[in-house]
Amino acid sequence: MAADFRIRPLGDRVVVKPAEREEKTKGGIFLPDTASKERPMEGTILAVGEGRLDDNGKRVPMNVQSGDKVLFAKYSGTEYKIDDVEYLILSEKDILGIIQE
Amino acid sequence: MAADFRIRPLGDRVVVKPAEREEKTKGGIFLPDTASKERPMEGTILAVGEGRLDDNGKRVPMNVQSGDKVLFAKYSGTEYKIDDVEYLILSEKDILGIIQE
Amino acid sequence: MAADFRIRPLGDRVVVKPAEREEKTKGGIFLPDTASKERPMEGTILAVGEGRLDDNGKRVPMNVQSGDKVLFAKYSGTEYKIDDVEYLILSEKDILGIIQE
Amino acid sequence: MAADFRIRPLGDRVVVKPAEREEKTKGGIFLPDTASKERPMEGTILAVGEGRLDDNGKRVPMNVQSGDKVLFAKYSGTEYKIDDVEYLILSEKDILGIIQE
Amino acid sequence: MAADFRIRPLGDRVVVKPAEREEKTKGGIFLPDTASKERPMEGTILAVGEGRLDDNGKRVPMNVQSGDKVLFAKYSGTEYKIDDVEYLILSEKDILGIIQE
Amino acid sequence: MAADFRIRPLGDRVVVKPAEREEKTKGGIFLPDTASKERPMEGTILAVGEGRLDDNGKRVPMNVQSGDKVLFAKYSGTEYKIDDVEYLILSEKDILGIIQE
Amino acid sequence: MAADFRIRPLGDRVVVKPAEREEKTKGGIFLPDTASKERPMEGTILAVGEGRLDDNGKRVPMNVQSGDKVLFAKYSGTEYKIDDVEYLILSEKDILGIIQE
């Protein structure tokens, strides 16, 4: 499905579908909203850019791919909606880690 | 039409005609104005610069072309009007993704 | 005329004669002063520097030349007057695009 | 155990399990909360990223490994919880030193 | 005279003797003090540094020389006095252009 | 003694034992607390990191070694305590100079 | 004398003994305290670091040496006292020029 996603992100950006707030992953990661410190959110990658160009003009390969479940900082990226579904466009550098199941 | 556009953007800049506020794309992307977070706008590229020069003086090819429908951050770029039509001049790095239809 | 202009700008700077505020270009670009967002101004390049040096000490060729009509951000550059005529010294990177007529 | 940790950190990030506040390490390092200056916290590394890419696109090897006890600045990184256990995702550059026992 | 000037500026710095405020150059450049925007000042270069070193350790040749009449941003540089005469030490990058007579 | 120090600092960091406030070095350096300007503190290096990696991935050798008495800016680094003794972890670039006795 | 100075500055730093406030140099440079703009101070270099390392790990030679009389920005550097004599540790890039007598 991801390859057909309607938005093709540029550079090192990815499109992410955020997990529901109350959702608990199979792996048991729970992300309460009352934390005093900023907590990461999690989501699933739907589309991946080609990667940024380094200083020598070579494209840097991406470390994530469509389908990966990822953690990302709460206020990073840009939200948008398609047919009332919320998505996020993030830079790969805002992704903290991949959730392995 | 794009090749004849009256403004030739410099470096990695592009000229974009923003979509109407209330417009809904064929693909169903809808961009409400009431969002708490900044949402991207969409538009169509009318003209594309030659690309910026990297640190070694080589020109970096652009990833977008005239006719592309793109998402960009709401407050990026510089607006201007020609014959009462509003345009935006954006740097390519402010373009989040390409809308595929 | 431009080659004889009294100021020789250094590096990637250019000297620009701004267009009159109310002026409308032949091409019909009109720049109202009431815009909520910052709008570019337009002007004509009178003199062009030799270009900046890149990290390897090579001079980066300029993308504009004397006589070009250009758009530039409203608050960029430094104004000065010669014989009561107002000029601007701008860095090339503040030039958004070239107006083609 | 660390190789199986549920989060695989990206780039030069690590996952750390912070030591209890009142805990005193075997080595006798005690970290009071009343200090006027910010004090480092300590913890144990559970998972290590592959390392960041340098300007030439080569991966920079990490200087820490799973199992290392480390000192890190108090407010660095991002907290999250799995099954009510608190973890931190840190960049390696926020790690001040390794505690040798 | 310039070669004997008492201060030898370091790196890409120059020593400038600012023109008198009310002075009008032969070329007719007049710099009123009432401008709403910052205007450049003009002056004559008395001494020139050897140039800064680039990233590869090579010295970047200066684009100005002693005797040049130059325009520079009003608040750039550091003032000092020798025998009640005011001078400025400027970085070359604060020089906007050379006045040709 | 230094080689056995309990903390192994990472990158270009060092562990320093600050000198007592009122202490006067053999060399007679006295550091009053009433100065209007920030004054450096002095201390003895107990442990030294392997050095940072430069842009080409080569390790930059450290300029200080265990046992060196050094001056450092007052508010640099991170304090911590082991068995009620205060230490500082500093980056080498915060060390102003070495005190020779 | 300078080679024996008690502090060996690191990197591109120098140790400077500032001239007395009211002092007038032989060359007649006078630095009043009432200036509206920040004025440089002058002093004599007592000790010079080995120079900073450039991006390729090569040491950049210093442009000043012990004994040089120099001008430097008033608020740059770090003060300290030895036996009630005030000294400054400055980075070479804060030195504006060398006073030739």
Automatic annotation (TrEMBL), chains A, B, C, D, E, F, G:
Family as reported in the entry's similarity comment: Belongs to the GroES chaperonin family.
GO molecular function, one term: protein folding chaperone
Subcellular location: Cytoplasm
SMART domains per record: Cpn10 (SM00883)
Keywords from the UniProt entry: Chaperone, Cytoplasm
Protein name per its UniProtKB record: Co-chaperonin GroES
Upper lineage: Bacteria, Bacillati, Chloroflexota, Chloroflexia, Chloroflexales
Function: Together with the chaperonin GroEL, plays an essential role in assisting protein folding. The GroEL-GroES system forms a nano-cage that allows encapsulation of the non-native substrate proteins and provides a physical environment optimized to promote and accelerate protein folding. GroES binds to the apical surface of the GroEL ring, thereby capping the opening of the GroEL channel.
Native organism: Kouleothrix aurantiaca
Subunit structure: Heptamer of 7 subunits arranged in a ring. Interacts with the chaperonin GroEL.
Domain of life per record: Bacteria
